[in-house]
Amino acid sequence: AKREGRGNFQFFSPEMNAATHEHLLLENRMWGALHAEDFELYLQAQVSLDTGRVIGAEVLLRWHDTELGSVEPSRFIPVAEESGMIVPLGDWVLGQTMALLAQWQREGLDELRLAVNLSARQFSGGTLLARLDELVAHHGIDPSLMELEITETAAMRDPENTRQLLRQLRARGFKLAIDDFGTGYSSLAYLKLFAIDRIKIDRGFVQDIEHNPNDAVIVAATIGLAHSLGLTVVAEGVETQAQWGFLRDKHGDEAQGYLFSRPMPAADFREFIRLQVQP
Ligand code: C2E
Ligand code: CA
Ligand code: CA
Ligand code: CA
């Protein structure tokens, strides 16, 4: 609770101390957690609105700490971003994702795509391309089975650098998606500037789509715009049949959300797919 009123300003508020303490605690434990393999990839299905079939999944990082229990990404990702830990952590995610794709390939499950989240730091660090080349060669995977998600905020930090890097990634065959579309700024400008494949409509526009006419208009127009630019559209956070129906009627391409699947461990996802392909 915020108690300090006017004239009662505390430089170190209890809230601030708690936040700093939390930050330090998480930062300290994160390195150990990475070495102890306390992180795990969870997968959330992406489903074709046309056919209802799973076309791939988004990789979402989970941390099961021996002392802290489960730590939510909304707690640890910002700390990792700030401390720079997101670079080795993100690197681990890329390697694990490719290892999983390679495993699926050996099992004949060779059409499912995996999307990974890239942080702004990874994206603008200058080593991403070389590192991805190294990992692709090591795991022997087809880069077109991998989608890289970047947020518009990350993309717009240095638009010229982004433009060049996206071109090079695309030349390798990687698929590129803009995440949380509509929540940053100059969304429309970079659609023309950047060579991308997909946009992910943020959950914020989807959640009230049935009741909020503005959101409905924005989503329908975004799908139309994306299609006329040759891009596909994934809607995030689809939780209800009504949202699914709206997106399908507006010719959205894919949906992701609790309606279809929660994020789950890779082994569970494998089972989920196996059950789905039964006639
Ligand atoms: P995001 O990339 O926008 O991921 C979507 C988030 O929405 C995920 O939260 C997912 O679990 C949640 N979600 C999916 N469907 C639904 C739904 O139907 N309803 C609701 N209410 N939520 C849904 P999560 O897993 O907690 O991740 C939060 C954020 O943490 C992600 O947002 C992403 O920005 C970041 N993150 C997660 N994994 C990674 C990673 O490996 N690297 C980086 N850099 N960031 C990551
Ligand atoms: Ca994402
Ligand atoms: Ca997102
Ligand atoms: Ca989001």
UniProtKB/TrEMBL annotation:
The keyword Metal-binding does not apply. Residues 23-277 form the EAL domain. It is found in: Cell membrane. Its main location: membrane. It comes from the Bacteria. Keywords: Cell membrane, Membrane, Transmembrane, Transmembrane helix. Signal peptide: none annotated. This is EAL domain-containing protein.
